[in-house]
Amino acid sequence: METTVKTMYGDMLIHESIALLQEGRRVVLAVKGISMHPFILGGKESVELVKPQSALKVGDVVLAWVNGTHYVIHRIIGIEGSRVRLMGDGNSSGVEQCGVDEVAAVAEYVIAPNGKRRYLYSGKRLRFARLWNKLLPVRRWILAIYRRTVVKLNWTV
Amino acid sequence: MKLKKGFVLREVCGEKVVVGEGLETINFGKLISLNDTAALLWQKATELGDFTTEQLADALEEVYEVGREQALSDVKKLTSKWVEAGLVE
Description:
heterodimer, A: 8-stranded antiparallel β-sheet, about 35% strand, B: alpha+beta, about 45% helix, about 25% strand
């Protein structure tokens, strides 16, 4: 009789999560990948999502269906009318686009493997996110150093 | 034994999984996947509230052609996995 602790990813789970978000529930989803370094450690941490409660803002970390092809959990870097531009904090290039109505949820908290929750929009993290945005031209090198050293200590913002 | 409060058996992506659920929040961050037999025993344990391995072995014998000894041994293995996963108290 199998009982296995596992982490699930993928579009089907996201669709189930979106249905629950629409009912007003909060949903915790595991994050994979390195595209939200140094704010979220994919493969180790999860995010707590809520249905967007108010107008989306630049700086929000959201779950969105982008470029008509896939879901991402990335940060909003621009909003023009009903179009939203997103980019992963851990990426140094590559901007995704979607409509406002394709943003399914806003990530409010990051949850570490030990269960500790970090609010993504504390004063300190918002300031760091703004600075991180300004560092885009040199982000590639900072990320390279981060991924070779600091990330091994599970350090995040 | 007793199943801890806040864990709910759901079908997610065609799999039976135990999910941590609060009043507001559903935690898909870490799921505990159960096969059909384990899910059946989970349901039985939920119905019983306080349960013993003997009661779950009874339930197993009712559904499957399995001897008493085997049923008890399987249930003990299963419940020790549940303890390990922090699902029972």
